[in-house]
Write a structure and sequence with these properties.
- By secondary structure, the chain is α/β, with parallel strands linked by helices.
- The protein has 12 helices and 8 strands.
- A 6-stranded mixed sheet has the order 1-2-3-4-6-5. Strands 7-8 form a two-stranded antiparallel ribbon.
């Protein structure tokens, strides 16, 4: 249950996930329209990051000294603390309906560990609040109009007016950080991007096609995509240097393809287990797909993507 604490200030962090701009209509289908979870799929007791209720209470007290104004409300939704200036009811609803929902389902399929630190989720009510308060609290202008994760400030920073999709995307990053050291950027951003438009089916999170698709289809027709072996081997500098967002889209729809074939969770778990020997995931991908010729597979994958509406 979320613990609602009426308060007044906060702390944060900084590994912005760079990438293509996201439209203001972006959202995640969440618990409001998700299917009910069957009893036999419910997860066991959630993992713990080792922090007690007293630790969370002390953390909240420290936030009081930093909140930008009396408009801000705080909701403890473990393993996060949600802070926002959109009103008490709105902050509590985002905590329950998006944060709790996403965390529950991501734990179920992918993550056995919570983030080590208590992380703050800042939900600024509009663009003006987002930009002004990000500068005030974290000392820099946001590089995206939508939101980002900042490990340095232990914060997820959102313009929540743009919808919940960016929030679900960014929640993936601290879980990857805690569970998959050395995860290559293609999978970190591929999973995050997959769930920026998502819902619940049969008790599991499921990504849907989204705004990244038309650009990816154009790039396929123009022959602009990297071979998967090259994409998967990109380091952070190489992955994020793509200003068009093609790397994001290609990684997202590779994850989407695996999901649609019922292979995504298996791939993630097998890659995680084999990460020392296969740091990019390419060999695991080939094995899970059962493909000897990955160039031929990529052509079939491109036809699959072009057929999506």
């Amino acid at each position: 249950m979320a613990v609602l604490l009426p308060l007044g200030l906060a702390a944060a962090c900084l590994h912005a996930a760079p990438g293509a701009a996201e439209p203001a209509t972006l959202f995640a289908r969440n618990a409001n329209n998700a299917r009910a979870t069957p009893a036999n799929t419910r997860a066991a007791a959630p993992p713990s990051n080792g922090h007690t209720d007293r630790d969370y209470a002390r953390h909240v007290e420290r936030l009081k000294a930093r909140l930008p104004s009396r408009e801000f409300e705080v909701v403890v939704e473990k393993p996060f603390v949600v802070v926002g200036d959109g009103g008490r009811d709105a902050v509590a609803a985002h905590a329950r309906q998006t944060v709790r929902w996403a965390v529950r389902l991501l734990r179920r399929d992918f993550f056995t560990k919570d983030p080590n630190a208590i992380l703050d989720i800042w939900l600024f009510k509009d663009s003006a609040s987002y930009r002004a308060n990000a500068r005030r609290l974290f000392g820099r202008e946001p590089s995206t109009p939508y939101g980002y994760y900042s490990p340095a400030h232990r914060a997820l920073v959102m313009n929540i007016e743009t919808g919940g999709g960016t929030l679900v995307h960014e929640i993936v990053h601290p879980f990857i950080e805690a569970n998959f050291p050395g995860c290559p950027p293609w999978l970190d951003e591929g999973l995050g991007s997959l769930y920026e438009q998502s819902g619940e089916e049969g008790g599991h999170i499921r990504g849907y096609t989204n705004w990244r698709l038309p650009g990816l289809q154009r790039d396929i027709r123009r022959g602009r995509l990297k071979p998967f072996e090259v994409l998967l081997a990109l380091d952070a500098r190489g992955f994020y240097a793509d200003e068009r967002g093609t790397n994001y889209a290609q990684a997202r729809y590779l994850c989407y393809y695996l999901q649609e074939r019922g292979l995504l969770v298996r791939f993630y778990r097998e890659f995680h287990a084999a990460r020392a020997a296969d740091p990019t995931g390419f060999d695991t991908l080939r094995r899970v797909l059962g493909e000897a010729d990955m160039d031929a597979f990529q052509k079939r994958w491109e036809e699959f993507v072009l057929g999506l509406g």
